[in-house]
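Here is one chain, start to finish.
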Amino acid sequence: METSEEKNKQPDFSRNISIWIDTYDDIFSDFDPRSFSERNISDDFLNELRKVSHEDSFHINELRLLVPETSRNQESENIISKHLHAFFRKNAHAYQEQVKQLREKGFSFVLISVFLLIAASYISSLKSENIILHTLLVLLEPSGWFFIWRGLDHLISSSRDEAPELDFYNKIAKSKIAFVSILKNSGQKEEIDLLKS
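Its structure:
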């Protein structure tokens, strides 16, 4: 028999994801010689992380970086954890602004197109032979349709192209980062530290 506490318990739609790395350098670009706090994140690492995170729409509770136990260094992991969080938050904010700008531009174009097409319809209803009005009609109609298609393109593009990247960076930016020791001899995985920031 279920208790009231069990009935009220919400299902957990979160999960943990794991990425295996041989060394900390696997996280960063091979062509960047700077320290862990400044190095560019590797495209291969991001692509693998993106692929794993897109397997479903669940919230990512924890990103686990699996490292050989003999390669671990607490100080380096603290630095890397902070750097990764800063990177994902920065990109999440950048994509959020990009999506916002695309949508604002899209709505502006659609609004302009409505005014242009209303003006064209009004001039057309006058059935005037005036050359100036006729020229305005010729200019307003295609301009109105151009702006409406451009506006819709911006609105669709913000959802089709930018929204998935925004979702990816938001997911990872909100997750915890854990470095997990891999005991190669026994083949077992032992979690040593959860680095929260």
